[in-house]
Amino acid sequence: MNKSHTWKLPERVAYDADVLKLFWEKKIELHAERLQSEDMRTHRSALDRLRGEWAQKLEDRHRMLQAPPRHPCRVPSFHTPDKMAT
């Protein structure tokens, strides 16, 4: 707006400013409410808990695979020395 228009209709400019201010305050309020509801929804979600459980399982599996074997693998024998002698 040019300066001459502002001086001719000062109440109109004030009205527009108040309307814009209320508009943006309402937008900010709605945005804050949506952020809060989204935050509450994600806190109630089991997704974070499940991610944590899977990360722990993968970490345990990785540790198990990296550790040396505790018992040497033995192939079960179908013939024992006693049975072969008879």
From TrEMBL:
Query: Which residue stretches belong to region Disordered?
Result: 63-86
Q: Which InterPro entries match?
A: FAM240
What PANTHER family does UniProt report for this protein, alphabetically?
PROTEIN FAM240B, PROTEIN FAM240C
Name assigned to this protein: Family with sequence similarity 240 member C
| Gene coding for it | FAM240C
